[in-house]
Design brief:
Layout lengths: L4 H18 L5 H9 L5 H8 L13 H16 L6 H22 L4 H4 L7 H6 L3 H27 L17 H11 L4 H6 L15 H14 L8 H9 L1 H6 L8 H16 L4 H5 L6 H9 L2 H22 L1
Helix pairs in contact: 1-2, 1-8, 2-4, 2-8, 3-11, 4-5, 4-8, 5-8, 9-11, 9-17, 11-14, 11-17, 14-17
Length: 321
């Protein structure tokens, strides 16, 4: 059922409360879709929590954007028996609208450009509590989710009427990473594998955070991350305040998702030089077909998918021992 303008405004305010409670920007937009459409799955929410602060504190793509984009894919997936080319193109058109709107309204979807804080430093975390930073975050949380639900209304009612290009094989960025992790570790979520296509080409083909490294971080968090459906404000505040320390120091139990994800990210950066797709491949995708043609012959993409998969597999298997 479509949401009215009044209901959408209420969902925006509810998202602000979720953000206040969780203090994790990867959670609120995704959780809003889960809760609104009765699509709850704790493991999916744990995976989305890894998108925090521009992917594990890297200040790349804002968690409101990446989490919201995954939410749109989750809603579409709930209405489909099986994904096809037409559905993928339709999803990416909605995500493009969502990302572009966020970019136009707030200046950028990249956290370091929008918030200008270093989350690896304690003063960067404390900076989040400055009044103007708090206002900006809560405003962006509400505004992005209101637009997210406006798009959700159309996902439920609109049909895609443009011609669909013919391809013999479909390529993705995050999905092959999650598939290989499943095969080698048994850490899996079939729905996450399907909706991860939202991250193709840097989130809806927009050149933002690379889907391969995002998939690695989501897999780590799905395995040992925080379930924000079961934590209270004080624990979440402690998680936030100790975030810089946890990025640097491994706990004896090896159950520190921030540190483990950070190890993979560091190796990814050594090879790729950036977390953003447009910087890594020096290409802006004009269409889904353009992405497919480029991805089919992109050896660098294959290498980064391989690196992300193998590093994540090694960490998960070490944790399991």
């Amino acid at each position: 059922m479509n949401k009215t303008t009044k209901e959408i405004k209420k969902l925006g305010r509810k998202t602000q409360l979720t953000f206040f409670k969780t203090l994790n920007c990867g959670v609120p937009a995704f959780k809003s879709i889960q809760d609104t459409y009765n699509l709850k799955d704790d493991n999916l929410l744990k995976a989305a929590s890894g998108l925090v602060a521009g992917l594990n504190g890297q200040a790349s793509t804002c968690g409101f954007v990446s989490g919201g984009s995954l939410g749109l894919a989750l809603l579409m997936d709930s209405k489909l028996d099986e994904w096809n080319t037409k559905d993928e193109i339709r999803l990416h058109s909605f995500i493009k609208e969502f990302v572009t709107s966020f970019r136009d309204k707030y200046g950028s979807e990249i956290c370091r450009e929008r918030i200008k804080l270093n989350f690896h430093k304690q003063r960067g975390i404390f900076g989040l509590f400055l009044p103007h930073k708090l206002y900006k975050d809560f405003s962006h949380a509400s505004g992005s989710v209101k637009h997210l639900h406006e798009i959700s209304n159309r996902i439920l009612t609109e049909d895609y009427k443009e011609d669909t290009p013919e391809v013999t094989e479909v390529f993705h960025c995050a999905k092959p990473v999650l598939e290989k992790i499943r095969e080698e570790t048994s850490v899996e979520n079939p729905v996450l594998e399907k909706i991860s296509i939202a991250l193709d080409g840097g989130v809806g083909l927009q050149g933002s955070v690379c889907g391969a490294i995002a998939a690695s971080v989501m897999a780590i968090n799905m395995h040992i991350g925080v379930n924000y459906n079961k934590t209270g404000y004080l624990k979440n505040l402690k998680i936030l305040l100790t975030f810089p320390k946890n990025l640097r120091k491994k706990k004896k139990s090896s159950n520190n998702p921030f540190y483990e994800s950070g190890k993979i990210i560091n190796k990814f950066l050594e090879k790729a030089g950036s977390l953003e797709c447009k910087n890594i491949v020096d290409h802006e995708f004009q269409s889904w077909k353009d992405f497919q043609d480029f991805r089919k012959t992109c050896e660098k993409c294959n290498e980064l998918i391989e690196l992300s998969s193998n590093e994540t597999i090694n960490i998960i298997n070490t944790i399991k021992k």
